[in-house]
Design brief:
The protein folds into two domains: 346 residues, Purple Acid Phosphatase, chain A, domain 2, CATH 3.60.21; 168 residues, Alpha-Beta Complex (5'-nucleotidase,  domain 2), CATH 3.90.780.10. Helices cover 26% and strands 26% of the residues. The protein is built from 15 helices and 31 strands. The strands form nine sheets. It has a seven-stranded mixed β-sheet with strand order 5-13-14-16-17-19-18, with helices on one face. A hairpin with a 2-residue loop joins strand 13 and strand 14. The radius of gyration is 25 Å and the shape is globular.
């Protein structure tokens, strides 16, 4: 697996880390593989079918029930079809777990000229084609999420996740970890989404500040009876959530350490009869592997994570450890064989399954899920479908042109400010070539940030550039050489003792990783959405095919 030094971690914050190098447009290697698969399908009628690799023996099945902490969950998992046709041995039981994470409201797939990748309906169709149906009345499949469900595409973000939860209900999810992006619209919105969901959100380490009392809208665990086996699922939230989420959305909360939470709740879950214990966490797979080693004495079978957008299928501490990447572009498929007589899992396997389909011969998306998505897509188009501009080449998520578009639009809309600063993590996807609609801007900049005006000294700005720990997007100034910063309006150097008006988002202002709150403790809250100046500026340019937007943009890094 190729990895790139990038970790996508918050409402605009980006920390050093790793994620799989998975691009919206497939690489040439993946293209070749997809064409090869298509060719094999076309000649498949001439081939002798081969047996699906399987864990021997196949188990028997019974209908499941659900128990949660402290009350019964609202939706019981349903059994799923038999994975293989081998005869059962001594009542061994088979359990199949499908895991996704960091869906980020990507109900719609990524599409290029030749391929379709990800999207909720195509992902659901993928596992159904394999015979794994989380909604089947006589099945044994658990569908779980590692969190960060709905902040992303406009079809989800604009409706504060309501569309994504409706889709996840239809897909048959049984539980989700509580990701940091679940808090992007505040705790009250999270409560609304949890109430809407027919599955619980789990976090055994999410407390009322200053106490060991869990918050009342998430649960520490869920017990699911699948195929006659009690499966305990313990959830963990990201401990670093306060570092990557707007402080205003986390008032009264504390995110605790992982190991103490597991040592507290694993005995409880076992005392309630759980025979297999899984951990569903919004934690990067590397950190999960270290955790698995620390708690290997607890006998946890499977750790599934997320957050870093890094696909991983491995093992540690005697347990399986896995995570998908993001956007329903893949999922982790795990098979467990449990021997009731021995009281243990006797065999296990897991794999990462890509959702990558050739346009020319793509299987149909799952129809029920697709109909829900179509309904919300129509609503999104009605509200946000206004075309405001045109780009011939598109603007990459990490391009200086897109970054400068954001920051320069602030100063255009708020000319009394001298300087503006933002962070890289707020840009969530590319701006595709062609017509630009309002919904595209919302998808690129999905967070509900507002602009703050600060009054600071030049030396404060210089300190912020050094202390933030990551490159910042700059407006009104440019770096020139080591430690030198000039004003763009006249080319003069930034004066350390001069006073400047600085625009930042409320996210940056409240985040302890940045010094802005210490530099001006009484900022002016403009109540301007950080994305609205972008929409207004793009609309004002009246760009089109003959005069595309990129001709008006500064594409130089600052």
């Amino acid at each position: 697996m190729v990895v790139t030094p990038y970790r996508d971690v918050g409402t605009g914050h980006r920390d050093p880390g790793w994620r799989a190098a998975r691009m919206p447009v497939p690489t040439s290697l993946r293209a070749f593989l997809a064409v090869l698969i298509l060719s094999l399908l076309l000649v498949g009628c001439q081939q002798v079918p081969t047996a699906t690799p399987a864990i021997e023996p196949s188990p028997t099945r019974t209908s499941p029930t659900v128990t949660s902490a402290p009350a019964t969950a609202t939706q019981a998992p349903t059994p799923a079809p038999k994975l293989t046709e081998e005869p059962a041995q001594a009542n061994w039981r088979e359990i199949v777990i499908i895991h996704t994470n960091d869906e980020h409201g990507s109900l719609l797939p990524g599409e290029s000229k030749d391929f379709i990748e990800g999207g909720a309906a195509y992902s659901a169709a993928s596992w159904l084609r394999k015979g794994y149906d989380p909604n089947a009345p006589q099945g044994n499949v658990l569908l779980l999420s590692g969190g960060d469900n709905w902040t992303g595409q406009a079809i989800s973000t604009w409706f504060r996740g309501e569309s994504t939860i409706e889709v996840m209900n239809a897909m048959g999810y049984k539980a989700s970890a509580t990701g940091n992006h679940e808090f992007d619209a505040g705790q009250e919105v999270l409560r609304e989404r949890i109430k809407q969901a027919r599955f619980p959100y789990l976090a055994a380490n999410l407390y009322r500040q200053g106490t060991e009392e869990l918050v009342d809208y998430v649960k520490p665990y869920l017990i699911v009876v699948v195929n006659g086996v009690k499966v305990g699922i313990i959830g963990l939230a990201l401990k670093e959530t306060p570092d990557v989420t707007a402080a205003k959305h986390l008032e009264g909360l504390a995110f605790g350490d992982y190991e103490p939470a597991l040592r507290r709740w694993v005995p409880v879950v076992r005392a309630q009869g759980a025979e297999i214990i899984l951990v569903e966490a919004h934690i990067c797979p590397q950190a999960l592997a270290l955790l698995a080693e620390k708690v290997k004495d607890l006998g946890i079978t499977l750790f599934e994570g997320g957050h870093c957008h890094q696909a991983a299928v491995t093992s540690a501490g005697g347990a399986l450890v896995a995570a998908a990447s993001n956007y329903w572009r893949d999922y982790v498929l795990t098979r467990l064989i449990y021997d009731p007589a021995a009281g243990k899992v006797v065999k296990s396997e897991h794999e990462l399954v890509d959702v990558l389909l050739p346009q020319a011969a793509s299987p149909a998306p799952e129809p029920t899920v697709q109909s829900i998505i179509a309904k919300w897509d129509e609503r999104t188009q009605t509200v946000l479908g206004e075309v405001i501009g045109y780009t011939a080449t598109g603007l990459g998520r990490e391009s200086a042109a897109l970054h400068n578009l954001l920051i320069d639009s602030w100063l255009w809309a708020y000319p009394q400010a001298d300087v503006a600063m933002s962070n890289l993590g707020g840009f969530r996807q590319d701006l595709a070539s062609g017509q630009i609609a309002v919904r595209d801007i919302v998808s690129v900049l999905p967070f509900e940030n507002e602009l703050y005006e600060l009054e600071v000294k030049g030396k404060d700005i210089l300190y912020a550039l050094k202390a933030s720990g990551e490159p910042l997007v700059l407006g009104g100034i440019r770096r020139e050489g080591e430690g030198k910063v000039i004003l763009l309006k006249d080319g003069s150097p930034l004066k350390p003792e001069a006073t400047y008006r600085l625009l930042v988002t409320d996210y940056l202002y409240g985040n302890p990783s940045y010094p802005f709150k210490l530099q001006d403790q009484q900022p002016y809250e403009t109540s301007i959405s950080w994305r609205q100046p972008v929409i207004d500026w793009v609309r004002a340019q009246k760009s089109n095919q003959d005069n595309p937007l990129e001709k008006r943009l500064d594409a130089q890094s600052r």
